[in-house]
Amino acid sequence: MKRAGAIRTMLAVLAASFAASTARAAGEDAAGSTPPIVFVHGEGDSAVFWMPVLWRFESNGYPADRLFAADIDHPSARTDDTVAEENRSSSEEAARSLARTVERALTASDSEKVAIVAHSRGCQTARNYVKNFGGADKVAGMVLAGCVHHGVYANSAERLNSEYNGAGRFLTALNQPPEVPKNIPVTVIRSDRFDLYAQPDARFLGLPGQETGVSFDAPELKGADTVVIDGVDHRETATSPEAFIAMHKALTGQVPATLDIEPEASPTVAGEISGYANGAPTNLPLDGARLSVFAVDADTGERRGEAVLEKTVGADGRFGPFAAEPGQTYEFVVAAEGYPVTHIYRSGFPRSTDIANLRLYPATAGAIAGTTLPGEVMNVMRPRGYFGIDDNATLGAIPIAGRPETEDVPSVWRSSLAIDGDAPETVTAGFNGETIAARTTPQNPDDVVWIEFSN
Question: Which member of 59, 211, 238, 433 has the greatest number of CB atoms within 10 A?
Answer without folding.
Answer: 238
